[in-house]
Model the fold of this input.
Amino acid sequence: MPLPIPGIASRRALAATAVAAITVLSAAGCADFSEQERSAEAGSFTTVPDGAAGPKPPPPPPPPTEEDRPVPSGPCVDPNPAVIATCLGTTSGVRPADPEGKSTYVAERTTGKIIISQRYGPQRTVATVPVDAAGDGGLIDFELSPTYLQDQMIYALISTGSDNRVVRIASGSSVKPILTGIPKGATGNMGSISFVSPTELRVATGNAGNAAAAADPGSLAGKLFTIDPNLTEPRPKIIASGFGANVALCPDPESGNLFVADSGPAGDRLQQVEAGGLRSLWTWADRPGITGCAVSGGVISVSMAKAFRIDSLAAPSNANPAVGNPQQGDVKEQYGAVGRMTSFGAAMQIATVNKSVPGAPPTTTNDRVAIYTGGASSADDNT
Done:
């Protein structure tokens, strides 16, 4: 029987705080708030006394919706209405920047930039961290501080010339190492981070191209562990080991269960983290190229970059612990190769990695972030 990961209540409260902080940040100048600006320019209004002479003016027209606004021109305008960020470098982590998911924070793996964007812009870099992007390293993943509204801190998993490490990025892109010495390799660097609470950051690392290191308890390669990012020298608490490449965390916001997708020794796979260890849910022996995962509405979605598809599986429950056969969703024509994913409400944001995947469609607006609502339902057969 799957057991919920400790800290569910804290993590739910944290998620609410993070969304509120993101929304305030977007309102502070990271998105298009022309409606508020027009209202401010119109000046203040006074109440017309009862019985005043003259006809009443007609009510003001409703503010234009996104569909009413003229479509801008230019090489970075994507015709797909689900696309909310365009002309990006090779992407990695992605996070919604408002509760409706209409704006996004997205990391460029090779440039070390974290960018905020919405459909038709504006697009702005909120932080930049120096990285070594050789192989599959670089800016691997990021998370906003649980108290971002107060401290303006961003945490990131990055590659340097000598190691992979967790760092804290302050306002103005000042970078401070939090945990160093995570093994780095020519491949197998991609990992994932997420907050459980303000004092507990979850970190998943790749095996740095060395399967033996993933099994070695003395190595931080191929591990899932937690640290307190507030400490000067945090001590990692190992939760699970044996991960391969392209390790992606996908917590379920509803149940609190934690799933991990990676490319392991026997193939690409999806596992559930339980109190006693890892439980295998599904393995793809043909290695379609796992690059990300997200859980929304009782469905686990797993992106397969090399196969240009997103597979969907019904999330396990106490009543039905199996996941059933994955439903395959071909996204090559619409999006190409999809990398990291994140959920919000009943939908997801997906970030493409077409610039780094051979055979990906050469779309002029690559790389992109889009809202994705495809997938199986939680009522799908679990046979």
